[in-house]
Design a protein that fits this description.
Elements: E1 2-5, H1 10-13, H2 23-28, H3 32-38, H4 42-51, H5 54-64, E2 70-71, H6 72-77, H7 84-96, E3 100-104, E4 110-114, H8 116-127, H9 148-167, H10 177-185, E5 189-191, E6 198-200, H11 202-208, H12 212-225, H13 234-245, E7 253-254, H14 260-272, E8 275-276, E9 284-287, H15 299-304, E10 312-314, E11 319-322, H16 327-333, E12 338-343, E13 346-350, H17 353-361, H18 366-375, H19 379-384, H20 391-403, E14 412-416, H21 421-433, E15 437-441, E16 446-450, H22 454-468
Antiparallel strand pairs: 1-14, 2-4, 3-4, 5-6, 7-9, 8-9, 10-11, 11-13, 12-13, 14-16, 15-16
Length: about 475
């Protein structure tokens, strides 16, 4: 009897989706010590509190002004019994964020205590007081003020430079080597094996079809992963980022009092379009919409305000018309459409089974394709809706995706070449009784068991072989 290990199945047809963490997921991956250090800064406490589920905010507010621990049974009584599952989910979140700490009073009664650092600084940010924020220094009136329209245009132009670089467009100026390193670190681009030039990856294709707010947040998370390697202080930079989060659009802020590390961080944010600064050494800067409400559930509609007008028209005959002269927008459309004609301000393309399946092979999902077409739909399509897109087109894109999901691949180990039918039946029955049998064929005396159970099955077979010899 011989065994052989099968190849990993899921990678044959499906690629891993792009994982974009929200604020909670990012913070829970940090150590409790780092979280406590972060909570020494009121802006971070406010940002975290604002993103908590409603039940969690309720629990925090009830404990905020209590100077002693509260029995877990009492906290549980604050929630209806019908919502007991939500209560457990909320408690888990609060513990993961190091906001709740479990303790025991004399007698062994379990209690919950609010993290003292978080409690102190949340009080400050809600009630007032504490040290002035980094960018709170007074400024003289700007002789050349920038209005909201200018800041919106600047932000989207700077961000599109990154996207143009990813699709290989020469329409925009290049990006810095630092930004390229972040794209490589994030796995959105890889070095070409032949000439070493950066080329887009499957994750990069998925990234391009995200809305702008999600793209910016994902990019910033990757930047934060590399921040300590740059010699910058993670806590200091995160604090400043969340101060920007609560800034006012169209208002200028002072750089006075910033450390050298923060000034470097500011220049990186400037390159990505999160802040506008006239000159590198200018004493003032303007936050843009990309920095406002970053990493919150409220960022998408706000960022949508700076998106360009919709330019895509989709017809029931699968034709897609794009009223644009942007190489970036044409390249994005080409990810899942077959380009037929291109004119100075119009691109005619068509959705085909092959073009959509090519996109699916690149890791793009049907939901992302439909979402992109919806997000950039021409105003005429929106006026004629709902629905914005023809239902037949949406259904067909999903059906093309389902064609690829008809098979489920499971990694396993194959056993064959048994010396007798009795040996085959013994191993088959053992695998069946232990629920590790994936497939068997009595004619060819072939058994496939799950990959995790291979060692146990092998040990069983050795014991059986010794006993029967």
């Amino acid at each position: 009897m011989t065994s052989s290990q099968s190849t990993s199945g899921p990678n044959l047809l499906r690629s891993t989706g792009l994982k974009c963490k929200d604020l909670h997921e990012y913070l829970k991956s940090r150590s409790p010590e780092l979280l406590t250090e972060l909570y020494q800064n009121p802006p971070i406490c406010l940002a975290v509190f604002r993103e908590l589920p409603a039940h969690a905010r309720h629990y925090v507010m009830r404990l905020l002004f209590i100077d002693q621990s509260v029995p877990t049974a009492v906290v549980e009584s604050w929630c209806s019994k019908l919502d007991s599952e939500e209560h457990r989910r909320v408690i888990k979140i609060l513990c993961e964020l190091n906001i709740f700490k479990e303790s025991r009073v004399p007698g062994g009664l379990p209690t919950w205590t609010l993290n003292l650092t978080f409690k102190k600084n949340l009080k400050i940010v809600l009630l007032g007081g504490g040290k002035p924020w980094t960018m709170s220094n007074q400024l003289d009136t700007d002789s050349k003020p920038r209005d909201v329209a200018f800041l919106d245009s600047y932000a989207i132009e700077r961000w599109e430079c990154v996207l143009h670089y990813m699709v290989g467009s020469k329409q925009q100026e290049g990006i810095s080597a630092d930004a390229v390193r972040i794209l490589l670190h994030a796995g959105l681009m890889n070095r070409d094996e032949e000439d070493g030039s950066p080329i887009i990856t499957q994750a990069g294709f998925q990234f391009l079809l995200l809305d702008t707010a999600s793209q910016v947040w994902y990019f910033i998370l990757q930047y934060l992963d590399t921040i300590e390697a740059r010699g910058l202080n993670l806590v200091e930079c995160l604090t400043f980022l969340f101060q920007l989060n609560f800034s006012t659009l169209g208002k200028d802020y002072s750089t006075e009092g910033m450390t050298d590390g923060l000034l470097v961080f500011l220049q990186h944010l400037r390159e990505f379009g999160l802040v506008y600064q006239r000159k590198r050494k200018a004493g003032r800067f303007y936050p843009t919409r990309l920095a406002l409400n970053i990493a919150t559930g409220q960022n998408k509609p706000i960022t949508r305000d700076i998106e360009k007008d919709g330019y895509i028209v989709v017809e029931t005959n699968y034709r897609v018309y794009a009223y644009t002269n942007s190489d970036l927008q044409v390249a994005l459309l080409g990810l899942f459409c077959e380009i037929m004609y291109r004119f100075p301000n119009l691109v005619v393309s068509i959705l085909t089974r092959d073009s959509v399946r090519q996109a699916l092979r690149s890791g793009i999902t049907a939901a992302q394709i439909v979402g992109y077409l919806n997000q950039h739909a021409h105003s005429k399509m929106i006026d004629n809706g709902p629905p914005t897109l023809p239902p037949t087109i949406v259904d067909q894109i999903k059906l093309w995706e389902n064609e690829r999901n008809r098979f489920t691949f499971t990694g396993g180990v194959l056993y064959n070449t048994f010396l007798s039918n009795t040996e085959y039946e013994v191993l088959r029955d053992h695998a069946q009784s232990t629920n590790v049998l994936i497939w068997h064929n009595d004619k060819t005396r072939t058994v496939v068991v799950s990959k995790d159970s291979h060692d146990d099955v092998k040990k069983f077979w050795k014991r059986y072989s010794k006993g029967s010899s």
